[in-house]
Specification:
mainly alpha, Endonuclease III, domain 1, 9 helices
Amino acid sequence: MTEPIRCSWAGMSDPMYLTYHDEEWGRPLRGDDAVFERVALEAFQSGLSWLTILRKRENFRAAFDDFSLPKVAAYTERDVERLLGDAGIVRNRAKIEAAINNARAALDLPDGLSELVWRFADPDAPVPKTMADVPAATPGSKALAKELKKHGFRFVGPTTAYALMQAIGLVNDHLEDCVARTR
């Protein structure tokens, strides 16, 4: 039996990538806390491998109270220090402070974070045939980043915004022949 065709990055050295690719990446995800988790993790990933974040994901969830917006928004400097001492997460002060800031900004959104982000969905994005067809940023991700920044979000540039769009299904960048494209 032939192995199903997948996006090339899914066959990387760790089975965690395969599971993430097949079961989560590109699938529509809604809900303010769920979307906030992805915004935060994409920011923490900046400059690092996504696999690093996947391996630490459960630690992030524990450290950040399952990314509950009200809980993270209430964090104080004491929580920042606690997080900086947590070897199970990425210990970067700017990224930790951005996550807390972004939780506060998300709570201030009149219609919520999920609603704001989903306004930038692009169901008609071209279907990539190869990984070379998958952009790093798009006009939509630039607009999303600009809108998030307008509301006070940090660590949300166009590339990070596009990675978020891919991760939560605002675009479907599974390759044309990928087994996960139509799941």
